[in-house]
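Hey, quick one: can you model this chain's 3D structure?
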Amino acid sequence: MTVAEALRDAARQLEATSGTARLDAEVLMAHALGVTRSDLLLKHMDSDVPDSFADLLARRMQCEPVAYIVGLQEFYGRDFVVNYEVLIPRGDSETIIEAALAHAPAKARVLDCGVGTGALLLTVLAERPEAEGIGIDRSLGAMAVASLNASRLGLQERVHILHRNWHEPDWKDELGQFDLILANPPYVETTATLDPDVADWEPAEALFAGPEGLDDYRILIPQLPALLAAGGVAVLEIGAAQADSVAKIAQAAGFSTKLHRDLAGRPRALVLMLTGD
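Sure thing. Here's the predicted structure for all 277 residues.
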């Protein structure tokens, strides 16, 4: 069987469990061959199918995310290492980057609360060569992934990854103040029904935040004013139906807010500015 024939067969098999069946098959085949997807399509359609492809396909048919299978996910034009310790960066979260870059000064000092893969923090640092940052996470596994991604992107000299948990009273000690704070906290309702790709594979502690999905906003946002330098802003990812609720939490903590929508027009990022600045 040629690669072209295997791709057609794999796409048919994946249609029941994936909305991107053909793309999934191509990414997995390229990974099995050790080539880029572009090279796969241009140069390898008549090649023999590597033995490893069957196992990769079987994993995807069990709804394991492609990013976990291949170990990488693209975000804002860069590849980030991912594993089961971290959420997979989504294209929707690029809205956070756009909002952050619109507000952050060139030499910004940046804090990422819940750094995960490092996608948010490291992307901002890569786009702002004079900026430096700190990423915090309560997960040691996530910290390891973020550190690895910092090294892969050549940013290790401008970033520090620290073990902190904003549920603990002393988590802010010795952090200082920041021009920009980023956060993509857990914001899924505990009763929400998620696709198997997410529910069965991605870390629950990074997803769920109480019956309304607001528990972490209620804990984190009131602590942010002490961490912001004069004129600084915080940029938070929010769920598509949470803009009003999170804005009220922020306003009670002394912030004014500005909403940014993703490419699909859904509320996605909330910029918080202290009203006295």
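One thing worth noting: Residues 150 and 268 are 25 Å apart (CA to CA).
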